[in-house]
UniProtKB/TrEMBL annotation, chain A:
Organism: Nocardioides zhouii
Record-linked SUPFAM superfamilies: PP2C-like
CDD domains: PP2Cc (cd00143)
Protein name: Serine/threonine-protein phosphatase
Lineage: superkingdom: Bacteria
Domain PPM-type phosphatase: 7-245
Pfam families registered for this protein in UniProt: PP2C_2
Gene Ontology molecular functions: protein serine/threonine phosphatase activity
Listed PROSITE patterns: PPM_2
Automatic annotation (TrEMBL), chain B:
InterPro entries, A to Z: FHA_dom (IPR000253), SMAD_FHA_dom_sf (IPR008984)
Ranges of biased composition (kind: Acidic residues): 163-175
Name recorded for this polypeptide: FHA domain-containing protein
Disordered, as annotated region: 162-209
Species of provenance: Nocardioides zhouii
Domain FHA: from-to ranges: 255-320
Keywords: Phosphoprotein
Length: 271, 352
């Protein structure tokens, strides 16, 4: 994956209502994660952090040719840790659970071709900008999404549905985990957004699209999304990770490293 | 110890021979069929170890092996699995210490062994020789749970690789609906930050409080209407696809073909095969069509579905007039059939 140049930005805010930020995120190119924990202080925040730690481990020894397998393994390791953590807590507080959603984006090598492998569990979301339009890639694992899919309610009704925060799959679930995977050609993604429901629950897709379309720097775009969610009420922790594929580096030219370092210093080290 | 074994369903593979059982994570699917061949032909633990290690230790992060000998039971664990061994001499937990390649024990007088792979499910399904997806495996009878297994427990589906034709997997028993999980309330949070909402809270107080509900097992992969669910992956390809570009692709799973195909909502063990074909005149859509192993009446053949491509697909079956595929309608393919996607790209269907 050395030949794909990624720019990224990330932002997270506790919001105006919650006291703890239970969201965690990871930017370790080419591995990006957002996790939204559930269970309150020393519960959800720990669970989402465990996911990030396991994907950090993946990023440190990442083999793009075995991307799907390594992502599945990282999910399994995170699941095992969260279950253990929950079991330890339940010994003191029966009925206690910690869990977390996760959305993951990694670049993989699919028979020599670099592609995006995306995965999700729960109601955090992955969007892409393609041909100037915003498109939601992930499908929420939530009660309301199932009601929408079966035609019982509309997307508008879902936004006010009393069970809109009830998710049907999560890390930490004793039923086991069943992440959905998505494989997209690199060229079909101009910009990628990973975010928690603290963003999508507060601002409309239209506003997300406007921000992603109008703000060029991914760091500024992530900041703007999170600030817009907080300004709209900030009822939940809001986290956004924005990734741009800025170029395919075919070959390392003789001074490419020097150019990169110089660009890096000008841009404040975002490469 | 009796070698009777039970398991809890999960995503690990259990390859169960008469004497030796090998447990591998779901990601090691590719090894399972070969190991089953060995285990079924009565190979001993050393022969299975040889096969497991043939590609080196580095590609084998997690494994457990249990071999029942005449007087002793041999146990090897590497990576995540842990085994609780009860023997006449006492009880022991066996797991590979961090940094160690594996942990191995040769135990005599074993009364029970419980190997935990993921989770902590109750091992209540009978494990018979074959291949099963498991999370926990128990051998023998734990002293404290003699009555835990009612004799009328139905034998659960065990996927057996041989003999051909492979049996249709029987549906898993319906999982018990679990009560929704409860979570700590944010109000109990002992770390006030003094922040107050700037808006009146018009929504219910579970807002911002994502909850886990009851999983709905069969929700995620809606079948094409009027068709039975296809198996995710089949052990033997049902057909070979010969592309005009020279590619040859076996249909042992879903194959997606297009100018820039996108695969959506698959599980880690059934990643579709994605074939990209050039389309200089853009006659081929980005994800144009899907070919996958058929189910039900189409079992054993490949079926094609045009995924709503812009310019359509022409199918010429031997002895029949060419027809335009209707978007979303699956058609069974017979050997010799030719699919024309446009831009000079054709796919010929042959026997595997």
């Amino acid at each position: 994956m050395r030949n794909v140049d990624l720019h990224h930005g990330a932002s997270s805010d506790v919001g105006l209502v919650r006291k703890v930020n239970e969201d965690s995120f990871l930017v370790a190119p080419p591995v990006f994660v957002v996790a939204d924990g559930m269970g309150g202080h020393s519960g959800g925040d720990v669970a989402s952090q465990m996911v990030v730690e396991e994907f950090q481990r993946l990023a440190e020894a990442y083999d793009p040719a075995r991307g799907a397998e390594q992502v599945a393994d990282a999910f399994a390791r995170a699941q095992a840790r969260i279950i253990d953590f929950g079991n330890a807590h339940r010994a003191m507080t029966p009925g206690w659970h910690a869990g977390t959603t996760a959305v993951v984006a990694v670049l993989v090598d699919d028979n020599g071709v670099t592609k995006w492998l995306l995965a999700n569990l729960g109601d955090s979301r992955i969007y892409r900008i393609t041909e100037g339009r915003l498109e939601q890639i992930s499908v929420d694992h939530s009660v309301v999404q199932e009601l929408i899919d079966s035609g019982q309610i509309t997307a508008e009704e879902a936004a006010m549905h009393p069970e809109r925060h009830v998710i049907t799959r999560a890390l930490g679930s004793p039923e086991g985990i069943q992440p959905d995977f998505f494989l997209l050609p690199l060229g079909s993604v101009e910009r990628l957004l990973l975010c928690s429901d603290g963003v999508t629950g507060m601002i409309e897709d239209k506003e997300i699209e406007e921000i992603l379309e109008s703000v060029a720097d991914p760091r500024d775009a992530a900041d703007r999304l999170v600030r817009a969610a907080v300004a709209a009420g900030g009822r939940d922790n809001a986290t956004a990770v924005v990734v741009d594929v800025v170029g395919l580096v075919k070959d390392a030219s003789y001074d490419s490293q020097r150019q990169l370092e110089s660009l890096e210093s000008k841009l404040g080290g975002r490469l | 110890m009796s070698t009777e074994a039970r398991f809890a369903p999960g995503d690990w593979y259990a390859v169960v021979g008469e004497q030796v059982t090998v447990l591998l994570p779901g990601s090691q699917r590719a090894r399972v069929a070969g190991l089953w061949d060995l285990a079924d032909s009565g190979a001993d633990a050393d022969a299975l170890l040889d096969a497991l290690l043939a590609e080196g230790l580095s590609s084998l992060d997690h494994v457990a092996l249990v071999a029942h000998g005449d007087d002793a039971t041999r146990l090897i664990v590497r990576g995540a699995p842990t085994a609780a061994v009860a023997a006449t001499s006492g009880e022991e937990i066996v797991s590979a210490a961090a940094g160690a390649a594996w942990a191995e024990r040769l135990v005599t007088g074993v009364t029970s062994i419980r190997v935990t792979l993921t989770g902590d499910g109750a091992a209540e399904h009978l494990l018979t020789p074959g291949i099963a997806r498991v999370s926990v495996v128990e051998f023998g009878t734990p002293s404290d749970a003699v009555a835990a297994v009612p004799p009328e427990v139905p034998e659960v589906p065990v996927l057996v690789a041989e003999p051909e034709p492979e049996p249709e997997p029987t549906p898993e028993p319906e999982p018990e609906p679990a009560a929704p999980m409860s979570f700590g309330e944010p109000e109990e949070d002992p770390t006030p930050t003094g922040e107050t909402p700037v808006v009146e809270e018009p929504w219910s107080d579970n807002d911002g409080q994502t909850q886990a509900g009851v999983p709905v097992p069969d929700f995620d992969r809606p079948p094409i209407p009027g068709q039975e669910m296809a198996p995710d992956v089949v052990s033997q390809p049902v057909a070979s696809l010969v592309f005009s570009t020279g590619d040859v692709v076996a249909v042992d799973r879903t194959v997606l073909v297009g100018r820039a195909p996108e695969a959506r909502r698959f599980a880690s063990h059934d990643q579709p095969h994605v074939v990209t074909v050039a389309s200089p005149h853009q006659e081929i859509s980005s994800t144009h069509l899907e070919i996958r192993p058929g189910a039900g009446a189409d079992h054993g053949s490949a079926i094609v579905t045009d995924l709503g491509s812009t310019n359509g697909t022409v199918l010429a079956q031997p002895g029949l007039d060419p027809e335009d595929l209707k978007a979303g309608i699956a058609v069974s393919l017979i050997p010799g059939a030719v699919l024309d996607l446009g831009d000079g790209v054709t796919i010929q269907v042959t026997n595997p």
